[in-house]
Amino acid sequence: MRKLTTTGFICLEDDYKFIYKIAKIEYEEWEDGAFNYRFRPFYNVINMLPPNLFQGIPGLDLSLEKAVYERKNIVPTFISERTPSERREDLWELMEESGMQALNRLEWLIKTNKRYSGDRFFVMPYDGKDFINYNVVSMYDLVRRSDSINKKLLDIICFGDYLNSSEIIIDDKSRLYYYQLLMPMYIREFTRKEEIRQRGIERARANNVYRGRVQIKIDPLLFDRVANDYIHGRISVDQAVSVLKVSKSTFFRRLSERQTRFKNYILQKGLEKAKAEILKQIVFNDSNLSNQQKENFLNVIDSYSKVSDIKDILTFLNNLKK
Q1: In this model, does residue 295 exceed pLDDT 90?
Q2: Contact 213, 198 (CB under 8 A)
Q3: pTM, whole model, 2 decimals?
Q4: Within 13 A of 27's CA, how many CA atoms are on the CB side?
Q5: Of the four, 8, 20, 237, 261, which is 20 to 30 A from 126 by CA?
């Protein structure tokens, strides 16, 4: 019997834009309709997280420290509370926005730019490897600027990856130690720079010269190609940001903006098509409407600008016919 498999990483993001890889999640579906969800927690990351950042994965008792948690023919809480069900009214709109033809709730969670408001979790596509093992002569080979080494080391620690260099070794034995050592240092430096930046903004505003943060320029054609490869699981987020030479937070922000623009484009095209169809099939072919009624109706329909207005258009037409 044929089987469909979808895999992703459950992640969370802290206030400083560090991404923590919490668990691997797998969804299997068979031709007869049976399905199975499988969670594989990364305890090497989970066990170092403070309670104010991580309180567990909804629906799983992580105190049991199982290597695998399974839910057979049951939609887990983690999925049900942050994905659309088959009965949701705007289901097809949400699927079209994510480029999907059939509902796969885990696939939707991976592709969507929407975030559940109840916690910090999101799901990234699985890139074929549970972790990256960096083997370099010097840890400074990982960065272009030496002053960014602290952030790079924390990226490796938080995402559950490994590093073997002449200066430092990051593995599951040392992960918590270096996290507790480096994170307070990073936060202090981040806070200091943020305070300096805010003072500069206040001075600029006082002098009426503040114009906001300059947006990083990215080749739109290159971004579209990289974004498509990432959305369809052909490349990892690390590969995407490496090609574009931007941070992960910038990449996800631009990806969200791109999907919003695409959604607005689809909605606008849908509205134009619906208005044209109504005009063609109902107004011009309806002999029961007088010329004055048709003119009134054309003025009203032309004022509508949202897809949701189609219902109002039909209501208005019915009122004209009474």
Answers
A1: no
A2: no
A3: 0.65
A4: 22
A5: 261
